[in-house]
């Protein structure tokens, strides 16, 4: 008479490897997007965002303002996002979700600040007032470059990295997951007994850093 076994049927190796492979791909995508986005934001924020002219002594002189003068928000949030990107691997469970959300919010905030800065004239007005010595001076012929929008694109990449972390972060490994804080392997197993009469056992013991000639 047959019986029903309670032992689970092993799944094919391909099925077991599907999740880790997907996790590795999403991890690589998040790292690439986050690092690339932060780099773009930091570099483009240092470029000229706005240009114009200021009246000085009956003439006009050119004035310009870089992204840092227009708004420092994208740079600050890019640094926060970059820190959050690497912090994702140092935390687990709820902590990882919170850090991933911070990463996404950093990208969204930086993108919004960059778009708003694309039409801002306060930085150039302040520069015109400084050059002319007239606090009421305003810049003329105001134009904006493409760099605020490049910054917004970089911030959007940070946002995407955060969304990847929120969606797939649970399957990502954590730093130090294999070892406890003491530096010893988690749940360390007792080394198998070494038979001095078997050369393969001696090689395995040496590979583990043990002295095969020491008994016990």
UniProtKB/TrEMBL annotation:
Residues 195-216 have a biased composition (Basic and acidic residues). Keywords: Membrane, Transmembrane, Transmembrane helix. InterPro entries: Trp_biosyn_TM_oprn/chp, Trp_synth-assoc_CHP. Residues 178-216 are annotated as: Disordered. It holds the Pfam family Trp_oprn_chp. The chain crosses the membrane at residues 26-49, 69-91, 98-118, 146-166. It comes from the Bacteria. This is TIGR02234 family membrane protein. It comes from Streptomyces wedmorensis. The lineage of its organism: Bacteria, Bacillati, Actinomycetota, Actinomycetes, Kitasatosporales.
